[in-house]
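Sequence only, no structure available. Ideas?
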Amino acid sequence: METMLKDIRYGVRGLLKRPGFAAVVVLSLALGVGANTAIFSIVYAVLLRPLPFPEQERLVVAWEKDTTANTPFVELSVAEIRDWQAQNQSFTSLAAMPTTIYGYGYVLTGRGDPVQLESARVSGSFFSILNAHAALGRVFDERDDQVNAPNVVVLSDRLWRERFKSDAHIVGQTITLNQQGFTVMGVMPANFEFPKGVDLWKPLLTSMDPRMVENRGAIYLQAIGRLKPGVTLSQAESELNTIIARVAAQHPETKAYGNRAVITPLTDHLFGNAKPALWALLASTGLLLLIASANIANLLLARATSRRKELAVRAALGASRWQLVRQLLAESFALAVCGGLTGVLLAYWLVELLKAIAPADIPRLEDVRINGVVLLVSLLCTLVTIVIFGLLPALTASRFNLNETINETSTRLTNTRGGNRLRGALVVVEVAMTIILLAGATLVLRSFVNLRHVPLGFNPNQVLSMQLRLNGEKYRPFEARREFFRQLVERLEAQPGVIAASGVLIRPLEGTVGWDLDYAVEGQSLDDARQNAIANFESITPHYFRTFGIPLKAGRAFEAQDKTGNPPVVVISETMAARFFGSPAAAIGKRLKLNPTDPEEPWHEIVGVAGDVRYRELQTSRLDLYVPHAQSTPSLNHFAIRAAMDPAQTLALVRREVASLDPNQAVSRVVSMDELAAAQLARPRFNAVLLNWLAGLAMLLAALGIFGVMAYAVAQRTNELGIRIALGAQPRNIMALVMKQGMKLTALGVLLGLIGAMSMTRWLVSLLYEVSATDPLTFALIALLPMIVAMLACWIPARRATRVNPLVALRYE
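Reply:
I predicted one. C-alpha cells follow.
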C-alpha cells in the first residue's frame, strides 16, 4: 500500500509538470463520464427502477388489433373483458381499465371553486392485480364494483393533499362529484399514480346502465392482468386469440372476426416509445465515452513512449516490468480520479439541464437524480475506462530491449513500430465509432425535420382549447348538451375580439386514442364496407372549421339548420373523398351510412369536404369523418376559441360565460393549439438535439485524436523530412506525404464505421419518420464529413512538416 501511495505521489508530481497534458486527459474523461452519468440517471429513474408493484414482470396490458382493417389498437367492451376473465387459464386475474383518463372526469364542487378531476373507472380486481393498498382506508374490490352499488371513490395522494388539505379523517366523508354524493373509501400512497395523471379511482359498474354492461359495441377499455407463474406472453396471446374467435362466432354483430389479441408488459405500456429513445441515448453516450477513452489511450501511449529511456534507466537500476507498469497505472489512476470527479460534477449540471429540456410526458422524469446507484455505475465506468485504456499504453511502453533503448537517440525512441500501429488503430476505432454515432444522430435529425414539415391540416395560431365535458344529471338528455354549447358559442362569438368558437368531440393532437367509426359508401355491400379503413369520427358544432382554420375543399360547413329532424349530413376529409369518389367535388351529394351493421342507421348526405387533419399523431394520417353535434349523440369533450386577444383574457372570458350558464361546470387542461402542436415535436426534438450534441462532441474528439497522431508522427519523422527536403522534395510533396498517412487511417475508420452503422441503425427504426435506417444520402453525408474534418486536422501538422529546417533536422542529436 505504501509503495502504491509513493507511485501515486510520483505520478501526480509528473502530471503537475505537464499541466496541458493532464488537463486534456481530465477534460476528455470528464466529458465521457459526465454525459454517461447524466443519461444513465434518466434511464435508471425511468426504465430500470422497479415499479411500486410486486412481481412487475408478470403484469401485462392487453387490447386487440383488427387485422382486416389494419387497425393496431381496438378497445374492449366490459362484456368482452368478462369473457376473457371467465374463459382464460393464463391469468390469475384480469381487470378493466380506461384507455385514457381524459374525457371521463368529474367536477368537484363544495370544496372551493368547481374543479375538473380526472378519473380512472376500473373494475373491482384492479387494485388486487397490482397488489396495491391504500395509505388511508382501503381500496375497493369486486364487492364494491356492482351495478347500482353505492358511489365510492379512492383519492390520489396528490388530490388529498392539494384539495382536501391532507385531512386525516377524509375516509368515510361524502364529497360532491357531478352534483352527486360519493363516499371516500381510501387514499392511495404518494408513489401510486397509475394511470398517470389520475385524481381518483371509481368502480366501473356502479353508475353504469345495465344495458351498457352487455353492449359489446361500447368499446372504451383495455385489460390489465397478472400472468400465472411460468406463462409466457405468446402463450397468453394464443389463448386470448382462441377466445376472441369463439366469441366472434357467437356474436357476429361485433365484426371481431379479424381481431387478434395484443399483450404488452406493463413497463412497455407505461414507457412506450420513450424506451428505444432512452436506450439509444445511453448507447450514444457509451460510444462517446469509448471515443474519449481512445483519445486518452493515445495521449497516454504518446507520453509513455516518450519516457522509454527514463523507464529503461529505471529498469537498469533494478525495477521490474510490473513496477514500471504500476508506476504508469498510478498516473492513470490519478487522472481517473480527477476526470471522474469532474465528470460527476458535470453530470449534476447536465441532469438539471436535461430535465429542463426533456418532454414533460416522459414517465417518472421528476424522480431523476444522481443517487447511489448512478454514482456506483459512474465509478465503475471510470475505473474500467482508465484501467483498460491506461493498461494498454503501460504494457506497450514497458516492453523494450534494455541495451538498445538506452543507446538509442530520443528521436528513434519514439519511432516504435508497435506504438505507431497501436496509435493508428486507436484513431481508426475513434473514427469508426464516430461514424456510427453520426449515422444515428443524422437519421434522427432528418426524421425530426420531416416531422416539422408535416402539415397539421389546421392553423393553430390564436386558438385556445380546453376540456369541457358537461357533467350532471341535467345533461343526460342530448338536447340539454346541445343547447348548452349552442348558447356558449353564441355568447362568446358576440364578444369583441372573438373570431369563432366551437365544441368538438376530441381536439386535434389530443393523443393516440380517438373515436373510430365504421361506415359504408352508398353502393357497397356489407362485406365491402368491412374492408374500409376505419375513420376518425368527430362530432362538432357549427363554425368548427373556421375556429381551427381547416380549409374546405368543396361544398359547405355545417350550419344551424343541420339539426335533429332535418336530413342527416356529413363532412369528410379530402383523402377520404379522393379514395372513394376520385375528387372532393365528386363527393358532394353522395351518401354514407355510419355503423352500417345497424339497420336503423340513416344515410348521411356528404355536404362538404375538409382538408386532412392530423388528429391522433403527426406520423400518420387517417380518414376523417365529421357530423353535426345537433345530429349526433356523443358528448363533446373539448371546446376551442379563436380570438385576437391575450390567452389569459380569452380563458377568463370562457370561464365567465361557462359559469354564467352553469356554475357547476369547469374547464380544465387548457392549452393553446400552438403548444399542443409543439408538444408533438418535444420528444423528437429532445432526441435529435441530444444525439447531435453527442455526435458533435464525438467528431471533435475524433478530430483531436487525428490531429494528435499526425502531430506526433511529424515530430517522429523530423530527421526523415529534413533529409527529404535537403534532397529536393517540394513542400507539396511533404504535405501530401503527411496528409496521405492521416487520410488512410480516416478512410479505414470510415469504412469500418459505415459497416457498423448499417447494422446498428436498424435499432432506431421506431424513432424514424419518412427516412430509412440505411438511407444512402445520410450515409454519404456522414462518410464525407469525417473526411473533411480529418483533412483539416491533418493540414496543420502537414503544414508544419513543410517548414522543417533541413540543417536543424540533420544536426538534431
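The radius of gyration is 34 Å.
Hope that gets you unstuck.
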